[in-house]
Design brief:
The structure holds 2 protein chains of 2 kinds. By secondary structure, chain A is mainly alpha-helical. Chain A has a single domain, classed as ABC transporter involved in vitamin B12 uptake, BtuC, CATH 1.10.3470. Chain A has a two-stranded antiparallel ribbon. In chain A, strands 2-3 form a two-stranded antiparallel ribbon. The longest helix of chain A has 37 residues. The relative contact order of chain A is 0.20. Chain B is an all-alpha fold. Chain B is 70% helix and 2% strand. Chain B is built from 14 helices and 4 strands. In chain B, the strands form 2 sheets. In chain B, strands 1-4 form a two-stranded antiparallel sheet. A two-stranded antiparallel sheet of chain B has the order 2-3. In chain B, a hairpin with a 3-residue loop joins β2 and β3. In chain B, α3 crosses α11, α4 packs across α5 and α5 runs antiparallel to α10. Chain B is globular. Classes of the chains: A mainly alpha, B mainly alpha.
Chain lengths: 303, 332
């Protein structure tokens, strides 16, 4: 029983990483119908920026803000920088290409992804970087046979908090309904007085910022980051987006959590080496029987 | 083309044929003028051209997003590697075998998912490619050699007197295969099948309403594309003499995708240009060492900014909609 509970907590932790990254994919896809391949690299860049802040500001941060304060400062700096990077990439690489249609934008996104990934390699070097162990709280909690770390619980609570905030913004505020309206029908939304450029600005600051915060959390959780990890996480998060129904934000969150759980249980009870195969097989099976994802609505075809 | 001044040559050849012969001439002379290294660069240009042509069937002709094409390529390469090293079957015999194996794999995998649309199909093909790559890493039945791959693959040969083992021979081998593929694909483009494919790409519902069996034509595209990728895998495996899973990553599928889109969807000369960009670019910018992929990413963005339809877009044969509209306007 305790083992199952432990697996559920581990799965939810990984799943919340996927969910937070998936939100960035899903927002951009919903509004622009663009698979933003660079999003995985936003996440990596955030992780590296958090690493730099923690390494170079460690003495200052721990003396002024405490252990948790230092981490929050690192996350905040990474998030702000990535919001700027996100909006810059959108201006330079995506905006000039929107009129040309969807496929050129996909190539441009791949180009931006290759650019960012190699920029990270040039700046930080091709080797793995390790988050400083002294700056990460390492408190273990033992409840009977249940064994988890404090960090895990904090990550879980914090991610659910972020997801909750985003859910509230998207579903309950006026700005959220502007985003949802633009996702449904861009032209009609513009006619209703919605400033489409503001919507794009919003999704390209919020998505990368969420990705950056996730990057710092992943760095703390696994301690080790590499410049290519964006591909892997991006692919998984995109899978989660599709699993939940593309463009559907609550769907993307659930998709990420389900993916994390599947990966954990597949790894624990079937085979650790085959867990990713298992994840992709489930994805294909889901799409065979529910072609619009688990929570996707059936859209009438426009002729 | 300097010889336009009423020379004898001009009466025999049209300018297009002249260009064609000039390009052919350069292709034949090139490996004798270049050293082994640059001949190998041209060989990999050929491999990418073949892969681009194979993906062009699926993505360019039918408009299906396939980001897992490296999976078919991997099947071809590994079938060749395993059958050659374990059973000693000659590489040239395995050429059609790997094509058929990749095609069969495509048929089995794509049959249940072919009804998916756009991005859903895209993610499923990504998943399929990843499943192939991860399976190769996990070394099922001790066949694929895990992350190290399979070593010691033979040269293609017919008996003892005809062996392809030098850079120049490989160069001609791949480009002859590419040449025949291009001829076949041009014939295919202008056939009933090619027109049905393009019709599906432009409007699937209209194609269906006109009696085109959309499902079967889409499957046919996947099967043919996979077979060509399998052939590319066979030649690649024998050239490198070893195969390993990292050669068939998601990145490789993305590069193939870019080849088709940089060149222009459905355009065969475009695919060749796209393959040249993808394969030659990292070589040309080798002096810039670690900055070259940065430049590469930037070039991809700039190309899409200035030529969103590709460098050499496909010209539509017959009546296109604009000219039809113009005639209508003139008449009434």
């Amino acid at each position: 029983m305790e083992v199952v509970l432990e697996q559920i907590i581990n799965g939810l932790t990984i799943g919340s990483f996927y969910a937070l990254i998936a939100l960035g994919y899903s927002m951009v896809y919903g509004v622009l119908k663009l698979i933003n391949f660079a999003h995985g690299d936003f996440f990596t860049l955030g992780s590296y920026l958090g690493y730099t802040v923690l390494v170079f500001g460690s003495a200052f941060l721990t003396s002024h803000c405490g252990l948790w304060g230092g981490i929050i400062v690192a996350m905040a700096i990474a998030a702000i920088c990535l919001a700027l990077v996100g909006i810059t990439v959108e201006r330079l690489a995506y905006r000039p290409i929107y009129p040309a249609g969807r496929l050129p934008a996909v190539v441009s996104a791949l180009g931006a992804s290759i650019f960012l990934q190699n920029a990270i390699m040039v700046i930080w070097g091709p080797r793995y970087q390790a988050y400083p162990a002294s700056l990460i709280p390492n408190i273990h909690i033992q409840m009977g046979a249940l064994h988890i770390t404090l960090l895990q619980i904090v990550i879980l609570v914090f991610s659910f908090l972020l997801m909750g905030i985003l859910y509230y913004i998207i579903q309950k505020t006026l700005f959220g309904s502007a985003i949802r309206a633009s996702a449904l029908d861009r032209d009609t939304a513009s006619l209703m007085g919605i400033n489409f450029n503001k919507v794009i600005f919003f999704i390209f600051t919020l998505g990368p910022a969420l990705g950056a915060i996730t990057g710092v959390m992943v760095g703390m959780y696994y301690r080790q980051i590499s410049f290519t990890m964006g591909w892997n996480y991006g692919l998984k998060a995109f899978t989660a987006t599709i699993l939940g129904g593309i463009g559907n934000l609550p769907g993307a969150m659930f998709g990420g959590l389900i993916l994390g759980l599947l990966e954990m249980f597949g790894g624990a009870y079937i085979s650790a080496a085959w867990k990713d195969v298992f994840v992709f097989l489930i994805l294909i099976l889901v799409l065979i029987f529910r072609p619009n994802g688990l929570f996707g609505e059936k859209l009438a075809e426009k002729v | 083309m300097e010889d336009t001044g009423g020379s004898k040559l001009n009466s025999f050849f049209s300018p297009q044929q002249g260009t064609l012969f000039a390009v052919l001439g350069i292709f034949i002379i090139y490996p004798f003028a270049a050293n082994n290294y640059y001949t190998d660069v041209a060989f990999f240009f050929g491999i990418y051209a073949l892969l681009g042509l194979s993906l062009n069937i699926v993505l360019g002709e039918v408009g299906l997003f396939d980001l897992g094409h490296a999976g078919f390529y991997a099947i071809g390469a590994y079938i060749t590697a395993i059958l050659n090293t374990k059973l000693g079957i000659p590489i040239l015999v395995l050429l059609p075998v790997s094509a058929i194996a990749a095609a069969l794999f495509a048929y089995l995998v794509c049959s249940p998912i072919i009804h998916l649309r756009g991005d859903y199909l895209c993610i499923v093909t990504i998943g399929m490619g990843e499943i192939v790559r991860l399976s190769l890493i996990n070394n099922p039945f001790d066949l694929t050699g895990g992350p190290n791959g399979v070593f010691g693959i033979d040269f293609p040969s017919l008996g003892n007197f005809f062996v392809i083992d030098s850079s120049i021979e490989y160069y001609f081998f791949i480009w002859i295969v590419v040449g025949f593929s291009i001829l076949a694909l041009i014939r295919l483009q202008n056939s009933r099948i090619g027109r049905a494919w393009n019709c599906i790409r432009e409007d699937e519902v209209a194609a269906n309403a006109n009696g085109i069996n959309v499902r079967n034509y889409k499957l046919l595209a996947f099967v043919l594309g996979a077979a060509m990728a399998g052939i590319a895998g066979n030649i690649y495996a024998s050239k490198l003499m070893c195969v390993s899973p990292e050669s068939f990553s998601f990145m490789e599928s993305c590069l193939m995708f870019c080849i088709v889109l940089i060149g222009g969807m459905g355009s065969i000369p475009g695919v060749l240009i796209g393959a040249a960009v993808i394969s030659l670019f990292p070589e040309i910018f080798r002096p810039f060492a670690m900055y070259r992929m940065l430049i590469f990413g930037t070039v991809m963005i700039l190309m899409m900014m200035f030529r969103p339809g590709g460098v050499w877009p496909r010209r539509r044969g017959g009546a296109d909609i604009k000219s039809v509209l113009n005639t209508w306007r003139k008449n009434g």
